Amino acid sequence: MNEQLTHMTKEVTAGKLTRREFMGKAAALGVSAAMASTMFADAARAAGPKKGGDLKFGLQGGESTNSLDPATYASSVPFQNGKQFGDTLVEVAPDGSIEPRLAESVEGSADAKVWTFKLRQGVEFHNGKTMTSEDVLKTMERHSNEDSKSGALGIMKGIESMKADGDNFQVTLTEPNADLPYLMADYHLIVQPDGGMDNPGAGIGTGPYQLEVDEPGVRHVFKKFANHWSDYGNFDSVEVVVINDATARTAALQSGQVHAINRVEPKVADLLSRAPNLTVHSTAGRGHYVFIMHCDTAPFDNNELRTALKYAINREELVDKVLRGYGSVGNDMPINAAYPLFDETIEQREFSIEKAAEHYKNSGHDGSPIILRVADGAFPGAVDAAALFQQTAAQAGIPLEIKREPNDGYWSEVWNVQPFCASYWGGRPVQDQMYSTAYLSTADWNDTRFKVQAFDDLLFDARAELDPEKRKVIYSQMGRMVRDEGGLICPMFNDFVEGISNQLDGWETDPTQEMMNGQISRKMWFV
Amino acid sequence: MHPIIKLVSQRLALGFLLLFGASALIFGLTEALPGDAAQAVLGQSATPEALANLREEMGLNRPALTRYFEWLGGIVQGDLGQSLTNKLDIAESIGKRLGNTLFLASVAAVVSVPLAIFLGLLAVRFQNRWPDKLISAITLTTVSVPEFLIGYVLIYFISVKLGWFSSLAMVNDSMSFGQKLYAVALPAFVLTLVVLAQMMRMTRAAILNLMQSAYIETAELKGLSTFQVIARHAFPNAISPIVNVVMLNLAYLVVGVVVVEVVFVYPGMGQYLVDAVTKRDVPVVLACGVVFAAVYIGLNMVADIVSILANPRLRHPK
Questions:
Q1: Which CATH number covers residue B210?
Q2: Is residue B156 part of a domain?
Q3: What is the ipTM of this complex?
Q4: A153 Cβ under 8 Å from any chain B Cβ
Q5: Which end of chain B is more exposed for a tag (fewer CB within 10 A), N or C?
Q6: CB atoms < 10 A from the CB of A270, how many?
Q7: Residue B200 counted as domain residue
Q8: pTM of the model
Q9: Per the CB < 8 Å rule, is B50 touching A215?
Q10: CB contact under 8 A, B170 and A255
Q11: What mean pLDDT do residues A59-78 have?
Q12: Which CA distances in Å does A240 have to A214, A261, A518, B95, B97?
């Protein structure tokens, strides 16, 4: 029997046996259906990517107000659309390194101030034109000039000048920044013909799929672009269907009407994963749910009190109850193992009532209630998380009072305004960007009012340092500073929880963004 | 002038005045919401510089009144303008969405209206006996359960477990009429369950009311069967209240089904309007609001006119 089975799996690998035929023959040999199914999948995987088929996404995060203009992307569906029709100069690889796309190579000057991207030749836009360094320059200008309305404007700020020079595109920075290639991998920075100056919403790029139907808030259809420059893209067409309702989304996946969905609710993820025709993937990302204290406002200007609160939160319990296990514990710094150059040796802060009580006593707080502001919209389960926090804090004798705020206006009236509230961060591709966005003294979004000169100096040192080992040491030092002196209580990092049909193969764990960083249509294939 | 033509033209003029009032009200309320389209589009990634640039491009820096009258000037010329957020032509986007909404509403109406009236008549015929009680019990149950729950239950059993119908009621231009009907089967069924009860109960109540009248007794005494009495003598006199409640439910089918649209991922007007409100896309909100108001006003006008035509005393005023 074994010989026959081996022969059959070889035939599958060679593409000579269909699933139906294989299952039939395996059943005749007395192999159980579940066993045969696994064997078939293994054999088919060995065969490598297959071309063809129509891929359908069912995604949360699309509105009828969406545009295809990359400058406007702020939610999941536009992000996914951009990945279909467009390419950036470089992309962040699943292992956190920089992967070439429209740029064949990137080179930085010794002082990390001048960066040269050598562009790939013979790349064709969907409108038939060939990409030039002028197109790249115009694209970057559109996202960074004074008329820019781009969501990427914030990350383009440190650029002094840019120039197109034959096959090269060159960026000169005002300050050194060793992470510039990561900034250029931002999903807004899709290269468009003439930089998209004339018609940014046309959906014309260099990606593996070209736009066919654009119905914002309903669906977007793309078909394979014959003259695409890379091997990416195994499907004949890709359809992005907007399904904002969580139950409708899971039903569509279960009944096989779509092949991949995002944002599976943690509370149904276990149940859903029992369905035979799909797999629930949980990917540790960089997003985190937090409680933030203003380091410059009483009573939180007292580091003993901040430390007491950090010890008083039961991280394991929160991951267990709020995330239902689909996440990992945080360590009061915004960085976790999903970031490049993360130092694994930083000690994890554990829940300890004794230490919390001790630090609380040292703080000399007068015992008046400490007000924690929270709303459902701060992060899914924020109100429950605050209630759990309140209970464990009470055990340490810390009087926490929860004040519920309305969702509407939470981000303008409470977050970054009130001294102690719940919030979330989506994470950034590199540590520098995360720290520059929210922990630099002068950052617009320094929502913990963490203003430490020594920390700022380290941040700039790290930018100018090109040796990864030395940078890792600096980042480790910075992480410890935020962890021990900052105003951030970071109990948990949430996972991306996604449902993928078993008809698809080639899944990779990619922490950069949700849905395999938008690479499913490029890298996966139908079994 | 014939009194009916006069009446219709009066009603039409009044309708346009109402539409104008509605648009002013909607504009005022949308302006009163916190934030604007530029903030909503940029969200968390907004920098002051990008905000200012986007406001400039969207023309949000100009006074509110100027923007309203510009919009009004456009609409009297039949131009609904462009969406602030994605620059698409509103008339074109609304055209598709409205078509979808009307299609779903019509399918639901074609099933539910005759069914409701027939069940109402049946309930009267067997008043206080088991068919009457059964009909009332079922319709009142379905109207009391939230529509999203009915939707989810149907999706779970009919699409996920049995696989008979698609849980995604996606329709598009390349589909044939039959395919479209198949696609909207589940949402149309849910809507039917939702609107059935009110129309059925109204039919029953209106006719029962008349059944106490002296002329019904006469008809019974001259030997007509109960069903003949209902169909020939009671029903024509009950048309006015029935038409009113039918029109009310038709209007609901057009303007009030956003929950069903979301559950079945149906590309109708409701979701379009909700998205536009969250993004403060004022021209789209106004356009949707005016279309909805027009549907409401139009259907109510039809109800009034039908009541008048059905009543000889109103048809020939002294």
A1: 1.10.3720.10
A2: yes
A3: 0.81
A4: yes
A5: C
A6: 12
A7: yes
A8: 0.83
A9: no
A10: no
A11: 89
A12: 10, 10, 12, 22, 18
